[in-house]
Each structure stands twice: as structure tokens, then as C-alpha cells.
Give the backbone structure.
Amino acid sequence: MNDREIFINMIDDNLNEMSDTIDCLYTTSNFRVKNKLLNRLRKSMSNISMLTQGLRNDTSMNNPQPSSDRLFTLDELSRYNGRNGNPAYVAINDIVYDVTGNAAWGGATHFGLTAGTDVTSPFASCHAGQPILSKLKVVGKIT
Ligand code: HEM
């Protein structure tokens, strides 16, 4: 499956999630739940806008997939901040992971953290022992 198809599938996933969220909104009268659901809708929308921006910038989309052996300086990593159609990468223990389109990293941010940076210590503080990294694609190493 090429990148375009992957992005289009992700857009579909977000649209399906939005449809489910709207169904829940119809059935709930609880103010707090309503707010949470509205936040989830906003996150899905920001995912979709990032993905469509990525599709628009087709050139970067069709770059051959960097292999996991690709080397990044921290300066190069900072360009993969998930903005302006760029993919969103983070580094943990000198390994570079792709968090583009990951629901928890909507808008290329996550609990105050931003893509394009080394997040080794916040990861250790917040997710030690959790099987999260195996779900993310490795796109290179820090040199
Ligand atoms: C400030 C430190 C952090 C906090 C407080 C935090 C908190 C959380 C929470 C509450 C969730 C579950 C809810 C959600 O999906 O939004 C989550 C999921 C996730 N976090 Fe973090 N996180 C932190 C740092 C990181 C870092 C550094 C990474 C780097 C890759 C990361 C990657 C993820 C991923 C990929 C998920 C989704 C997991 C899944 O699909 O099951 N988090 N985080």
C-alpha cells in the first residue's frame, strides 16, 4: 500500500470516528460527556486537515520511504514537526519514530510535547513499560 492510500485510509478512519462521536452526542445530555465528545471531534478534524495537507503536498508524500537506517541530526529532526504538510517524527533513545496521523498526537502535539523533538525523558516518565513504541514506525536514527 503506498503513502497516499495509507493517508486516505487514515482520513476514512477519522471520518468513521467522527460519525460515531456524533451518534454519541445525539444520545447524551451530560454536559461533561458532551464536552469530551466535542473535543474528540475537534481532534479528528485536526487529524484530517493535517492528512489532507500531506496529500496536497504530494511531492513530500512521494519521497521514497526513508529506511530505518536513515540518520537524522537533531536539527534535521526539528523539520519533521508535523506542520505545513511535513510528517511528524519524534526521537526516543536515539531512534526516530513516525507519529504522523497517530490519534494521540493530533495536530503533532501530545500533552504539551511537540513533534520534531527528542522526547526520551518525557516518554520514560509517562510511558515506562508500556508497549507503545512497537506500534510506531521507525524511520531512522539520531546521529
Ligand atoms: C508528558 C508526557 C506524556 C503524557 C502525560 C502522556 C499521556 C498519554 C495518555 C494519557 C495517553 C492515552 C490517551 C490518548 O490516547 O490520548 C497516551 C497515549 C499515547 N502516548 Fe503519551 N504521554 C506522554 C508522553 C508521550 C511520548 C513522549 C510519546 C512518544 C512517542 C507518547 C506516545 C503516545 C502514543 C503513541 C499513545 C497512543 C497509544 C496507543 O495507541 O495505545 N506519549 N499518552
